[in-house]
Amino acid sequence: MIYEISHRTTFSYAWNVSISQHLLHLAPRDKPGQTILQHGFLVEPAPTISQDSIDFFGNNTTYLTVEEPHNRLNIVSSFRAAVEPMVVPQPTETPPWEQTHAAMTNQADPAALDALQFVFVSPFTSSLDAGAYAEASFPAGRPVLDAAIDLMRRIHADFTYEGGVTDISTPIDQVLSERRGVCQDFAHLQIACMRALELPARYVSGYLRTHPPEGEEKRIGADASHAWLAVWVPGFGWVDLDPTNNLIAGDEHVTVAWGRDYGDVSPINGIVLGGGAQNVDVAVEVKPLHEN
Amino acid sequence: MTNKRSLSEDQPFGEALVADYAPVADIFDEMMDPAAGVRPHWSAFLSELGQQTAPELEHCWDTAQRLVRENGTTYNVYDDSGASVRPWRMDPIPMLVAPEEWRQIEAGLIQRAKLLNAIVTDVYSERRLLTDALLPAPLILGNAKFLRPLQGAQPKNSVHLNFMAFDIARAADHRWWVLSDRTQAPSGAGYALENRIVLARTLPEIFRDAQVHRLAGFFQTLSDNLIAETGKDEPLIVLLTPGPHNETYFEHAYLARYLGFPLVEGADLTVRDNKVFLKTLTGLKQVDLIFRRVDGDFCDPLELRTDSLLGVPGLVAAIRAGNVIVSNSLGSGVVECEALMGFLPGLCNALLDESLLLPSLATWWCGQDAERDYVINNLDNLVLHPTFADSSILSVSEEPLYVDPANADMRAAMIERLNRSGHEYYAQETLTLSTAPVWDEGRLQPRPIALRVYVCADGDSYRVMPGGLTRATSSTDSHEVSMQQGDASKDTWVLSDQPVSTFSRLTMIDQTLTLRRSGSNLPSRVADNLFWLGRYAERAENSVRLFRSMVLRLAGEAGASDDPQTLTRLTNILVDFGYLNRHSARKAVAGGIRTVEREMAHLLFERGAPNGLPELIGNLQRISSLVRERLSVDSWRVLNGLNQTVRENASVVRLDFDDVLALLNHILENLAAFSGMQMENMTRTLGWRLLDTGRRLERAAHTAKLMRELAVEGDPAAEGGLDLLLELGDSTMTYRTRYLSSVQLSAVVDLLLVDDTNPRSVAFQLAALDAHMEALPHDLEAATLPPERFLIASLRSSLTLMDIPRVCSQANARGKRHELAKLLEGVQDQTYEVAEALARKYFSHVLPTRAVSAISLVP
């Protein structure tokens, strides 16, 4: 499937900002099963610095500054991505979850070393209660992917999707006790659960194809960015799980970046000098072009 | 043991000093060998010390304490109000280290510094230590101090660690062991320096005779090396501090001054075009090197901790672009992790091809099976710690975890955690610290000690500070030594077997300086603070003068000629100027003189009284502490003394006129001393100009305000108003010498308003302000005057053109001199407008930066 995606963010300020600096995680990366065909940014006013680089996790980043007074900043990221359906191992055939840790101890194996860093608590995934919640899905000897999918299913069943009740700083334990939140809360929650059991899990930021209700035209800009997680299966690699929709990510998920948690891949992180009250307007459009 | 009471007061201590000293059995004592007596390197020191009498020694001790207080050496302790500042505690007995022993410590620490630097270099570049499994990956990848955005950012010459500290202690086996490595932004070197300066003045003869290695050369190396790092002849190097609320802010200011680097906060710096600039009064100046005292993850809210208010957005990008050096490099804290210590012997062999010279405190990281099992089997004899205090699920503090041997459940739970998540813990042996003598209760007493020793880069090697900070616990049996817990510090004397170089940092050798007239790197924030320091100092002086006049009237000392209305007048002024509340003042006046006295006592001594004396002096102290590094030691001493005087009097509740007058006079003298130092000792830099601008503006406004109160209505000459005006305006003597005794309104108005030879007059202040505005950086090409200069010029011309006799005689039906009133009002309003214009022009780019986030996450 080929998608045409555009993501526009417009900041407007009460009065002039004298300098603004932004770090973007908006340019999508290639990965097995996903090829970026073209990508471009449109930034208004014209940036003083626009510098692309690759971060620690291999994601594309863009460092952007506007060093002249402005009261409005418009950032549009648009690209085309070819996404293939994911080949996923048979969950019940994967190794028992307890063996995952041993599979990561060979530091000479780049894949194992990379997976290892996703075992540790990171700023947005700290939780005291996640381990206890996870346990029911992880009886001794259960295949790791089978258990992770069960955990995803439980989160989807136990939690209510509700916008506006949490924000990015809401602690996981509060999400756990109130049983509601949005996609990044559920992703962080399952990551915290996996890590409490010493299992590697990473946060994925990207987009999801949405289907308009039957008989309705899809509205432009009605989509949004999305977040899910990936779990590591020894001998295979990473499998993307979307607890918000109880889905193994297939060809309807387009990956932008991954990291330990939201903090590593926040789409736009910015600092402005001056400006007063601000308003942010975001519009995302995910347009499927044609089947491959 | 000799009974110390048998000692006569005026006899020198002699042998008694040592005979009285009783080390704890089975613990190594630095001074005394229980079998053989005093250790050789202590004997000369002790015999000189023994020649002193008890009172002399007490005097030395008092001197040390006083110097510490006078120099304002403080250590802030975090609390909710952020206000707890306590003096540095220092012991007058130095810790002595023998030359031979020091050489071993020195060699060991230089090796360790190289080793740690090599580890940091590898971790942020090739990561060979990880892929070759020489270092367990969890200790790096799970470490919150491993800053991923810095991966690949290699400093020139691969020097990540320019300045570090090591805590070392002597164990029962007589060897020195390393307790911890401080590789981010170690504190304490400034305190070590301060201790040395104080102690060298407390025990001057003994210090001179003792062949003690001097510290100045070390700081010279530190500074030379930082300069060399930049590759420039005259680089701009700044010392980045988290600000005055930091526990060791005193030290930041102290070091900045000593090393000659501007002290800056994150908000003073800005990144433009991937370069770091210091915002100064004269514009943006590019910074070559940042010597940081801010933890790495707080240094850039854009790429590191986004909630940090202490950093510089864009700093990491500037580092990556190679446009600025940050020292120590961001991310170098990764090797502070104590669980690493167990791996250092192996890493030393692998990286340096040498054996590790100084052992570390025995450490077992439980991420390995054998080590974990050992820890579980010896749980009761070891101290368990979380590996990564910052990120561990179980613990958020750096306190060791205590496992009660008697509590089986707790033990079992801990063992289960160790088996499941061993990598989150490490265990250490307990170390019995050696003891050294401290001066307590009039004699030497043994106390456990640990040393913090500093190391700086010196080309491609390292140099050790010959000395350091010795810390002594307050009780004999404590194993934990930390400055935050109120323990005392000691100077450390590293003895030399040869005569020592007495090089002082102030005498530059072999270096030709480019002659300079002014430091132009005045950060805008500092300029703002200096401006306010001037205003507060003047405000305090004006207020104290008012209080003194009031107290004089209450005491009936102002002379029989004084009009009885004067007391009421003064009370009105105190109300109008906001010192007394209108309601309480009315009650006080109605209640008679005793009630007025009570109100005054409240104003003078009550902590919470708005505009009261404690608040005025407190403001002055607070603002001066923000620009501490810009003030001379003497100025600081004066201000610090003022604050103490006011604090000591804070408990006074009753107004004793003699005491109060003495106090107010004392305060006025000190304020005058401060302003005298400002006039006579400060170079005429932009900073001085702003300080003086603040003072002049405040004085002009205050004088105008006083005149509006006392000269506009009625017949001031007849009602004692003019006498009071002259008194408050500090111009009585000038008037008397000029006009003998006849007090007339026009003469007073001339003297206080228009006469530009009187340093108390409004015209004098305006002339000074005009000169300052001219000297401050401004657009030389502009055709019109900037607003602040226009305001001053128009005020000056209206004073010049003023027809004094007419203005003073023209009054309306109710006896109000309209024209005079209008003019005075103009002076008052326009001086405040000038202040605002200055703030807009010179200080406003200090506006804080703010983080924005664009979270658009929905399904």
- Tell me the strand percentage band of chain A: 35-45%
Secondary structure class of chain B reads alpha+beta
Q: How many beta-strand segments of chain A?
A: 14
Number of strands of chain B: 23
Uncertain parts of chain B:
1-7, 77-83, 390-398, 480-484, 506-513, 853-859
Rg of chain A (CA only): 20 Å
- Content of β-strand of chain B: 5-15%
- H/E topology pattern of chain A: EEEEEHHHHEHEHEEEEEHEE
Stated plainly, the CATH topology of the largest domain in chain A is called C8orf32 fold
First-residue to last-residue Cα separation of chain B: 80 Å
Through-space gap between termini of chain A: 5 Å
Overview of this protein structure:
The complex is a heterodimer of chains A (292) and B (859). Chain A has 292 residues and is an alpha+beta fold. Chain A has helices at 100-103, 110-116, 130-135, 144-158, 172-178, 183-196, 262-265, and strands at 2-24, 34-44, 49-54, 60-66, 70-83, 160-161, 180-181, 201-208, 225-233, 237-242, 247-248, 253-259, 268-274, 278-290. Chain A has two domains: 2-83 and 266-290, Immunoglobulin-like (Sandwich); 91-249, Roll (C8orf32 fold). In chain A, strands 1, 2, 3, 4, 5, 13 and 14 form a seven-stranded antiparallel β-sheet that branches. In chain A, strands 11-10-9-8-12 form a five-stranded antiparallel β-sheet. Chain A is globular and about 60 Å long. The relative contact order of chain A is 0.24. With 859 residues, chain B is an alpha+beta fold. In chain B, 44% of the residues lie in helices and 13% in strands. Chain B contains 29 helices and 23 strands. In chain B, strands 5, 6, 7, 18, 19, 20, 21 and 22 form an eight-stranded mixed β-sheet that branches. Chain B has a four-stranded parallel β-sheet with strand order 9-8-13-14. In chain B, helix 15 (524-554) packs antiparallel against helix 21 (657-680), helix 17 packs antiparallel against helix 18 (593-605) and helix 27 runs antiparallel to helix 29 (818-843). The termini of chain B are far apart. In chain B, 48% of the residues are buried. Residues 1-7, 77-83, 390-398, 480-484, 506-513 and 853-859 of chain B have low confidence and may be disordered.
